[in-house]
Amino acid sequence: MACTMNLPLLKITTSDEEGCAYLSEKIHKLTTAIEDPSGLSFSTAECIDAYTLVFDLCTKRGPYEEVSRPVYDHYKKLLEEYIELIVFPSLKKEDGVLFLREFVRRQVNYNVMVKWLLHIFEYIDRHFVPRNKLPSLKEVASTLFCDKVFDEFKCKAKDVVITLISQEREGEQIDHGLIKQVLTIFLEVGGVNNMKPYEDDFEAHLLENITPYYSKKASNHIYIDSCPKYMLMAEECLKGEKSRASHYLHLSSIEKLLEKIQHELLLVNVNQLLEKQQSGLHVMLQDGKVEHLERMFNIFSTITEGLDPVAMLFEKHVTKVGMALVKEVENATSDEQGFIRKVIKLNDKYTGYVKNCFMDHALLAKALKQAFEIFCNKSIAGISMPELLATSCDNILKKGGGYENIGDGDMEEMLEKVVMLLTYVNQKDLFAEFYRKNLASRLLFDGRAGDDREMFILSKLKQQWGSEFTFKMEGMVADSRLARESQKNFENYLVENLPGKSQISMKATILTRAFWPTYKPSDLHIPAEMRNSIEVFTNFYESKNHRKLTWIFSLGTCKMVGRFRSKAIRLRVTTSQAIALLLFNTSDRLSYQDIKSHLNLTDEDVTRLLHSLSCAKYKILNKEPNTMTISSTDIFSFNAMFTSRMRKIEIPLPLVEEKKEVSEDVNKDRRYTIDASLVRIMKSQKTLDYQQLVMECEELLNRRFKPDLRAIKKRIETLIELEFLARDADDPKTIVYVS
């Protein structure tokens, strides 16, 4: 706007009255040109004339210090008068948006004024100021504007700007550029890298102003809206505020503003929001509301520690669903293998949420893992999870397990999912032992679906827990492969060395003792025809190897023919069952004690054997008295009247409870594993604090099983007694490795 006011003549008092008058005239003309650009102009030539005059005043009119000091002081006085006579009156008469525009205009004009004056008084700035270590002319100008103009009008400017921002929040249109210019003044008055005026005089008040607004908005919506609708409202508020603020606020203010809004809309009401009964996180997870879950994650992931309550409720929900599956089995509404299938399905579902909705965030992944670890380490109807998983693998891999007709890809996917569940189980070594028992059964009784499938799951186990975990299992599969080659060589040996001689067809599997589960040897009496075949194989094997063979007859099977009155039936039985049945080729009736004497077995083994032949599904023997239990006074005879619709039948022995035996083997192996871990740690560390040794050992063992700290401490004492370790003579709490 044009200025029609009569500007006062700014005076400079020196001894050269003519020069001072001329300088005052030039500065008056400069001021007039700045305030009314459409009128007089101030040229570069006039600026040079004014500079020359200042130069003359400082160098030719007396002692340098005496004449330069008044010129320096009057530069400051000149700006003060400009502020008091021109800036103040124009700002005090305006309000609202007009005030902001005038505020910006005054700052621009002031900067133009300073720019010209710096050229005019440049000689002072280059020589007098540095020599006397005084503030530069630019610093003097900035300080004057800050102290006199900014401090006087900053509150008024702040209030108008915040009012305009509030109006825009309610949907009104405002001048973004004007607000940007005003806030730039707040930033510039602090100088380079000093945002204190902006932060203290504007930003703090803005953040304080929005708190009641969004607090009230949250209160109005939290009780009415569903959780997804409330989050949509919060998302729109955040996006809108960010979009508006990006036009005029400093970047650091935008971040603080959004944090304030997030706190009021989300953090204050987070539990009430996420735990809404009809629409909270539990319902979204249960109903698979993927879009809502993604929005929830996107909103809370931008908040510091915002995902903590989400992860806590997520873990709580998954745990609740998993424990419900456990109770189904305990209440007999679901079987154990059905439980495994449901847990796999559950893991697929919530792992999908973590990957697709929660972007594989570590905190949510950890919450899922912790939830599964809770119910995956529970006993399911008296059966441990390691045993259930081993049985599940056995059903997938063995013939007759119900999975023979599925493709390799589907089977590998199922095995991968079982291995995934194993990552949640603490006692992985217990799984390994049960798996070895089942693997032995598949390999020895030709019950496996194929070597490729066996090796696939072993590769997955090895990938997860290392070669030490699968070393024995891989050795068992290798033994089985070598046994097939050995059998071919044995058959060639029979043709070359015993042509024409009648032999019982026999297949022998050579087992490496270190790989296979521990089997109890027996002194079973072998009939002559069987003994001859065993001797032939022994001679064959010892001619090529120098190892001693120990025969495990409890693992053997026989195929024999039972000639009953109705028809001949092929029987598949164990070695001890076959020998017992052969006794009836020469005797019509045999007592319990007779059979025990002929077989040379324990009462427990004889009872199981005779029960399978006389009391089970296939009653090959008659028993007197005809009861369902075996007694030492019972009499047995061949049941010639037995018949079956099938021409081939398999007669299994009653199962022996192996859990106790497996647990004992695992506990024994754990002692060795703890010892090895302790020695390995101490061998590398040489000396270590007692508690530190316990902690490092626990951490090392956690990949295989969750160790009992008392067991670790007990093994440390044992190793000290065995002189593998020792206590430090000066500090009993320090353990020393004995080399």
TrEMBL record:
InterPro entries: Cullin (IPR045093), Cullin-like_AB (IPR059120), Cullin_homology (IPR016158), Cullin_homology_sf (IPR036317), Cullin_N (IPR001373), Cullin_neddylation_domain (IPR019559), Cullin_repeat-like_dom_sf (IPR016159), WH-like_DNA-bd_sf (IPR036388). The keyword tRNA processing does not apply. Pathway: Protein modification; protein ubiquitination. GO terms for biological process: ubiquitin-dependent protein catabolic process. The keyword Ubl conjugation applies. It comes from the Eukaryota. Keywords: Isopeptide bond, Ubl conjugation, Ubl conjugation pathway. It holds the Pfam family Cullin_Nedd8. GO terms for molecular function: ubiquitin protein ligase binding. Belongs to the cullin family. Residues 384-614 form the Cullin family profile domain. This is Cullin-5.
